[in-house]
Amino acid sequence: MSVTVPQPRATRDTVLFTVVVAVIAALAAIPTGLVILFAGGGPIVLVAACFALVPVGPVVAAYLWLDRYEPEPKTLLALGLAWGAFVATFLALVAQEAGTIILSLSEQAGAVIVAPLTEELAKGLFLVLLLVWRRHELDGVLDGLVYAGMVGVGFAFTENVLYLATAWNGSDGAPGGMVGLTTTFVIRCLASPFAHPFFTGMTGIGIGLAIQSRGLAGRLGWPVLGYVLAVLCHAAWNTSATLGGGGGFIAAYVIVMLPAFLLAVGFALWIRGREALVLTSALQDAARRGYLPAAVIPYVVDLRQRRAARRHAHLVGGVGAARAVRDYQQAAIELGYLHHRFLRGTAPRDFGSRGQAFVELLQQLGPAVVLPPGAPAPLVGSVGSVGPADTARTTLPTALHQETNRHE
């Protein structure tokens, strides 16, 4: 049995967002590709692209690992990569060229002032589009970090292709050839593949905090503060590369950027660990209201028990049973995040209809779900019940619909 988790927003809006962003990315890819091709000098661009791909897989995998509680739609993650690789790169190139000319700045000043402002704005624009157009996909800071990471990875890939191709050709007295290519590869792809995801992550954190804010000041202020921090981090990074003939970069990398990155990793891991507490608390309250059985919460929240439940279902009932467990867990996770926002007073306007859809999906999936021995079965009805008499208790009460009107 396979049931798709419902999306309360109209399908046409979802498709429209995907199509519009994909078309924009495709259009931006043409001039961006031409710039790289002409700047890199032809065939070497393909070699540079192969080198630039090396860090993409591991960095993307790290963000997907962070996103295991509530995996974001693969289409949106791919759009984030494409936006960073083509749209943000193109917008940044145009803005930097115009800004440098208009302000009559040197190349060094442009790298320190114009580049951080324009690049972080271009990358952050995708997060703003998500916030405005696909807000129901954003539940908090972790989601903001994941989407920001995808955009940053895409941007870094295209930028690395350009830098690697230029390094092969040699510039400003650089040796060029394999020496120049290898040096640039080590610095940009091995030593600092996290740079752009890290910078844009500041904006992502701001967007995530805005989602969780009750007041208008927080909803507007956090994204702006996140963008400012992204620009400052980016500017500091670019400044270090211009000091001391490379010595400043190494010193800044060891003393400032590496500790800052480790701090950011620790923060991301803390946020990810906190998700279990948030979901447990929200789902326990949801269970008290009769939306799902309390005994299934560990099989939803604990990652190890989630995997064990899917393995057991596969052994007992095959692929269909494993899929039913997976869909049940995902629907419960979605309900948990939504209920958490309701409890915080930051629920979206369509909270009632979305919550109802998830509760109904849990009921629908229940008879097909097979959990390990000791788990409640079948998974229908409300806490402590399996019969149709309790069906009414598993629907969202009218009071919740009424209270939703006080949010947002």
UniProtKB/TrEMBL annotation:
InterPro entries: PrsW. The keyword Mitochondrion does not apply. The keyword S-adenosyl-L-methionine does not apply. Residues 382-408 are annotated as: Disordered. Keywords: Membrane, Transmembrane, Transmembrane helix. It comes from the Bacteria. Pfam families: PrsW-protease (PF13367). The chain crosses the membrane at residues 15-38, 44-66, 78-103, 109-133, 145-165, 185-211, 220-237, 249-271. PANTHER family: PROTEASE PRSW (PTHR36844). This is Membrane protein. It comes from Nocardioides phosphati.
